[in-house]
Amino acid sequence: MTSQRDLDMVHLRLILVSGKTQDFTFSPNDSATDIAKHVFENWPAGWEEERVSSPSILRLIFQGRFLHGNVTLGALKLPPGRTTVMHLVARETLPEPNSHGQRNREKTTESNCCLLF
């Protein structure tokens, strides 16, 4: 039988670049930093080749975007009681928001506008 507490929890399936996966369960109040710390402290046995030196370089990617440290699972409106897939990567720093798009705009001479008739 599933308890109400289990239904309120967020189930994450984390995928490494190598393709290895592991399931974890977190509170909606847990932040990306909390998750990185928990995973680092409970590093799965099958992930030994990918072990990192510090939880501070673990980054979560959800729907193609890096999650900054203070973002909680609840803020992402993830469905409680269901499994959500995220990627876990080792990266020292995060890109600035919109920096990739800005760089691309600076390199092109094309116009990004359109005309509607």
Q: Provide the structure class.
A: alpha+beta
What is the top-level CATH class of the domain at 10-90?
Answer: Alpha Beta
Radius of gyration: 18 Å
The helix/strand series, from N terminus to C terminus, equals: HEEHEEEH
Helical stretch tally: 3
Biggest sheet: strands side by side, in what order? 2-1-5-3-4
Shape: globular
- CATH architecture annotation name of the domain at 10-90: Roll
The biggest sheet, with number of strands, parallel, antiparallel or mixed sense and barrel status, is: 5 strands, mixed
- Overall pLDDT confidence: 83
Report the strand count.
5
Describe the structure.
The chain is of the alpha+beta class and 117 residues long. It has a domain at 10-90: Ubiquitin-like (UB roll) (Roll), CATH 3.10.20.90. The chain contains 3 helices and 5 strands. The protein has helices at residues 4-8, 32-41, 99-107, and strands spanning 10-15, 21-26, 58-62, 65-66, 83-90. A 5-stranded mixed sheet has the order 2-1-5-3-4. A hairpin with a 2-residue loop joins strand 3 and strand 4 (65-66). The longest helix has 10 residues, at 32-41. Mean pLDDT is 83; it is low at 101-111.
